[in-house]
Amino acid sequence: MNLQIVTLTFITLVLKQR
């Protein structure tokens, strides 16, 4: 897995939680 994919996934999860 590329670091960019993990970062994007993490950001998406954080935005969904808000």
Task: Describe this protein's structure.
With 18 residues, the chain is mainly alpha-helical. The chain is built from one helix and no strands. The longest helix has 15 residues, at 3-17. 0% of the residues are buried.
Q: How would you concisely characterize the structure shown here?
A:
Helix content is 83%, strand content 0%. The protein has one helix spanning 3-17.
End-to-end CA span: 26 Å
Helix content: over 70%
Task: Give average pLDDT, whole number.
Answer: 95
Structural class: mainly alpha
Beta-strand portion reads under 5%
> SSE order, as H and E?
H
Largest sheet: none
Oligomer: single chain
Give start-end ranges of low-pLDDT stretches: none
**Shape verdict:** rod-shaped
How large is the radius of gyration? 8 Å
**Count of DSSP strands:** 0
Tell me the number of helical segments per DSSP (H or I, 4 or more residues long). 1
